[in-house]
Amino acid sequence: MEVALSSVLVTGANGFVGRALCRTLAHAGHEATALVRQGGTDRADGVREWRHATADFAGLEQAWPQGYAPDCVVHLAARVHVMHDEAPDPLAAFMATNVEGTLRVARAAREQGARRMVYVSSIKAVAETDGGVPLAESTPPQPLDPYGRSKRAAEEALWRLSEETGMEIVVVRPPLVYGPGVGANFLQMMNAVSRGIPLPLGLVDARRSLVYSDNLADALMHCATDPRAANTCFHVTDGDDPSVAQLLRTLGRHLGKPARLLPVPPRLLRAAGALAGRAAQIERLTTSLQVDASRIRAQLGWYPPVSLDAGLEATARWFRATH
Question: Going from the N-terminus, what domains does the chain have, and what CATH number goes with each?
């Protein structure tokens, strides 16, 4: 389906998904504006930058550039999930950024004439594992941690805002996102494989849905510009769900350092995790989290332009060049 060129505001544009999205929008001919707290990141030609450095987007409406009226805002900025959160009240901190901050952006954009907001949520707003059935958009949400609960609360708040104002809302729930510039657990995993560290994961056949950053960016562009996406929730994946062991072996192949995987039964890993006080982390690692992304294919005709193997190869190439 051919869509008209649009003006899109991207929050969180300094993150690795935000940079990919701005580049994707610009290359497709859309007008992209990066809303960031700090400047200095290289951007694709034609991408404008708007700096607003307050916490949780306080004062955004008053600081809005005169005459700027985007068609859509893609909201990527968030307080992200961390393994060891040191905030006195983690849930309150997540809610302040991921719910109240999100609503400030939506309301300010709507006031300036934006017809649509694409909210980048997380599969953690639904669940941590799939229970044997890939998670669909209709799966009853049961988020477990403060991050997932805040993402789910933001989704609900935006649906209410849509009912009150008529603003179109599109919710996108990616699983684990990887690609050049990735950090957190995926980067640690590549570090371990690259250094030849033995990993006790050779028998872990739990399957995980992933999405490459450029694939997610392409899907977000479609959600921002396709009329058929209005007021819908979409799950987005690469469409190829490797087991944990397969993922590590593929990364090793692309890193030129074969993964050293020890054949430890998952039940022993869980027992060790319980003794070490890391039962939740080991449980997530050894249980499947597959995501059903058939809705976006059926409704928008969207398919990931980059294969899982090509995405992992590009990520490994970035890692080798920068580490």
Answer: 7-181+210-238+290-306 (3.40.50.720)
